[in-house]
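Q: Hi! First time asking for a complex rather than a single chain. Here are the components, and I think there are two in total. Is that enough to go on?
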Amino acid sequence: MTRAEVEAAFDAHSDAVYRFAWRMAPEAADDIVQDVFLRLLRGDVRFDAARGSMRGLLLGVARNLALQRLRAASRWSAIDEEQFVADPMPFDTLDIGDFVGRAVRALPPLQREVFVLAEYEELSLEEISRAVDAGVGAVKARLHRARENLRRMLAPLRTSMNRAG
Amino acid sequence: MEPLNDDELKHAVSSWKAPTTPDHLRNRIFGARQPWWRWVFTGSVRVPVPVCAALALFLAWFAWQQRSLPDIVPPASDRQGEVTLADFRPDTEVQARVVGALR
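A: Yes, that's all I need. Here is the structure of the assembled complex.
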């Protein structure tokens, strides 16, 4: 891709990539976005329209970089993934968004990434499947587990949301 | 404590907003924008290998052609310091004069 094409891709998709990186690894979001577009600029990552959208490709690269960082920081073990069952979180903040963010970030990374891609970036199951390099069945299962965990973790919010109307 | 239902979860999840891309990231990736005339001094042009090879072959052929051409001989009138009869005009009125007597 030419520099002008990469700049156009940055203008169109950098916010989506940044949001995703920030939700997965907030302290490394800047570096992840930078790495994603530098790889595109250097030709390490090639876009093929037949294999999905540019947005899906960039989010997939960001996902790999985020997981590398989480693994390097030893904040994730694949064994935790299946066994993770969340309990309700104590609602100790006035900001509901902040509380939801802490709950989403407490999910195991493989559940978190599919949840963020589905709920916040509104990717289809097929697009998520390509981005996370997993079958559609596995994506559905992770998404289901993520939603079940969040329903329990965020249960204390019900009182607050009912009060707000 | 009873878990949230679908609608409650959807509503709660939408309250978590993410920031947009910080402005400094564009410069970190692409560098600061340079004035166009800077390109004249620092720019580069990517040339495909076949085009580059064809150009090199053409230049080599052109140089060879220049060397093998015979030297061009200038016309006689351009040559200086040489004695020729090209501009010779014979005298039309001959006047004979006797300078000595015969015995």
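A: The longest helix of chain A spans residues 3-24. Let me know if you'd like any chain examined more closely.
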